[in-house]
Amino acid sequence: MPPIGEMIRESQIWKSIFRHPMPTDRRNRIVVMLTNFFLHLHPVSIKKQGIALSYTWCMGGVTFFLFLVETVTGVLLMFYYRPTLEWAYNDILALRDVTSLGILREIHRWGAHAMVITVWLHMYRVFLTGSYKPPREFNWVIGVILLLLTLLLSFTGYLLPWDQLAIWAITVGSNMARATPVLGYEGPGAPLLSVDGLDMITSASDARFGLLGARFVGEETLNRFYVLHCVAIPLGVSLLLAIHFWRVRKDGGISGPL
Amino acid sequence: MHGHVDYATFLHQISGFLGSYYLILALMNAILAFYLWNSGKATTLFRVAGFPFTTATLWLLVAVAFTIISPLAMSGDARWVVFISIPQPLRDFSNWLLGPVVYSVGGLVLFVVLFLGRKFFVKPMVAWTILILAMLFMGLAMTDPNFAEIVTKPDNVPIVGLIFLLGFFTWLATAKAVENDERARQGLPPTEKLDDEKVLVWPDLVYTELICMVAVTALLLFWGLMLQAPLEEPASSVKTPNPSKAPWYFLGLQEMLVYYDPWMAGVVLPSMVVFGLMAIPYLDFNKQGNGYYTIEQRKFAYIMFQFGFFLLWIMLIIMGTFLRGPNWNFFGLFETWDPHKVEALNNVNLSEYFWVKMLNMPLPRPSPTDGALRSFFTYILRELPGIVLLVGYFTVIPPALVLFSKFFRELFLKMGFVRYMVLNNLLLMMMLLPLKMVLRWSPLNLKYFIAYPEFLLNF
């Protein structure tokens, strides 16, 4: 009887899932990259310099991995959490004190902080190696948008525990929108937009209102930020990530001296 | 967390952490000493009675010193801890000395010194010494309740991590850049070019990724087990905490509020930062330095980026997180956050300097009978000095640079009018922040270049 491992790998089920033999020889190490959905993001071969940790710092990869961690822990947290004034704080309290695996919240929060830091370090590396230069200009632009979305993800998530830290950080942060030129009711130019002495831009119609869904951080804001945090922004990030990775390949793979 | 307990309890609380911290430091140095000795890379510093005192010996002694310090910290006893604390007079002096001006100018000086002396500072032993000294300082300062409270606040821990990570990666990148620049001088290709051969992604890259994933997961689990995510009292829209701070990554913007109104600090400047970042690849026409670390071959781009990133972003975040307390007043590292601290604010607008102090006239003011248009122009007249100054700043400096600086003339010729003006105006916009900081700190106490409260336009 052949060894059990070999039996499994020779079975119809295994073969139907993986489409390729174990990557133990050169041919199959090439085949695995071409036929596996998750691996086909990568090229088959790569310059040695391009995978040196001292060159890439692996920060882009770590950022992506943290995004996945945030997605998984985030989905699990959504099972426990209700974004209403009545429940939001209590649910987080329960996550801390009662729920098994409440550490999910810690991992989610520290992962979010870490992700902001790794995005910065990734951009720092890309700048220092001049990797945004032609033909990779546009991928840098996508990267800047991803940076912005990462910050917004973190910012919208900050409100959800609905404690003093959350509500006031968001209040301070969103107060800035009140001063948006023309579109904020305390912004320069806003008084110009009035018809017969009736202001068109008021605290109930300006940019901040659009962000908060109310004139102050309240239940509408909680709902709005929850949807942004769990659905809208992650969808946008996913799309841009796909383009970002695709462009890395199309623009000549990882950067290196010509 | 520690602020409301007496000193003995506080020491007891941190003793375990601090003791392990020094043990880790001892271990780090011991490993380095062993590595130097084992690899034969240790160099002899001097000889004592014919016996060589090598770098390995040095770091071994440092390791021994930290091992001795560790139980002192572990004891949690004030009689012992006093020996591993920064002396109170020094702490008082630091509190007295440190303010926004010393902090920012000090940061600039540090940046310049590190940049000019980069060949020296990237030497592994120099960098290691700086790291150990920084960590030693952290340890010594940790016995101060005020310092400990602000540094160990759960949401501030990532910023402590950020400081060390940025330090490490900046060292790594600069070391590589210095080496590549030296090689370029000798006519050699950059080191990145040496590893030109191709390897298969499976296993070389895939395994690295797997190890990275495991490492990050382990780190997150450890972090999550050690440190509980913060959860304060339930939200209350009537109880305003003092200070109220935005999330840490936006504290640079909140710090800008000291110098600019929200429409600038919170809306226009951040938009310019995003726009400016996106514009970088289209403004930097330098073909050199693509795909390898270098400083010499792209000095201007390098300095501008580091200035914006370190001094105007990271430094402001650190200040906003650690040094800004109640009422957004500045507090030293070892100072108690006293909500009753009063700081005099006598800021004066440019228009007031011009009309009242220089021309000895009252500020131009529309009379109540004036129509809207007439009032509008009166206000414009009142703020004319600031308007002229700022319009001049953005329109006169770029062509002046072309006329008087060879470097900018070449930029202009290579980039063309539009790209040159975009680059220059972005850089001038960036420089407006430090410029305004300096004018605010100067005896002028400048408040606004243009104060136009009638249209909510203060600049």
Keywords:
heterodimer; A: 258 residues; mainly alpha; Cytochrome Bc1 Complex, Chain C; 2 domains; two-stranded antiparallel ribbon; 11 helices; 3 strands; 62% helix; globular; B: 459 residues; 3 domains; 18 helices; 65% helix
How would you describe what is shown here?
Chain A is built from 11 helices and 3 strands. With 258 residues, chain A is mainly alpha-helical. Chain A has 2 domains: 1-45, no CATH class; 46-250, Cytochrome Bc1 Complex, Chain C (Up-down Bundle). Chain B is mainly alpha-helical and 459 residues long. Chain B folds into 3 domains: 1-84; 86-228 and 243-343, no CATH class; 350-458, no CATH class. Chains A and B meet through helix 3, strand 1, helix 4, helix 5 and helix 6 of A and helix 9, strand 3, helix 10, helix 12 and helix 13 of B.
Q: Mind describing the biggest β-sheet of chain A?
A: 2 strands, antiparallel
- Intertermini distance of chain A: 54 Å
- Looking at CATH, the homologous superfamily of the largest domain in chain A is Cytochrome Bc1 Complex, Chain C
Distance between the termini of chain B: 39 Å
Which class of the largest domain in chain A in CATH terms? Mainly Alpha
Task: Please report which band the strand proportion of chain B falls in: under 5%, 5-15%, 15-25%, 25-35%, 35-45% or over 45%.
Answer: under 5%
Q: What general form of chain B does the structure show?
A: globular
Second CATH tier, the architecture of the largest domain in chain A: Up-down Bundle
Instruction: State the secondary-structure class of chain B.
Output: mainly alpha
Main sheet: strand order of chain A: 2-3
Quick one: biggest sheet of chain B? 2 strands, antiparallel
Tell me the count of domains of chain A. 2
Q: What is the CATH T-level topology of the largest domain in chain A?
A: Cytochrome Bc1 Complex, Chain C
Low-pLDDT residue intervals, each spanning 5 or more residues of chain B: none
Helix and strand content put the structural class of chain A at mainly alpha
Average of per-residue pLDDT values of chain B: 91
Helix content of chain A: 55-70%
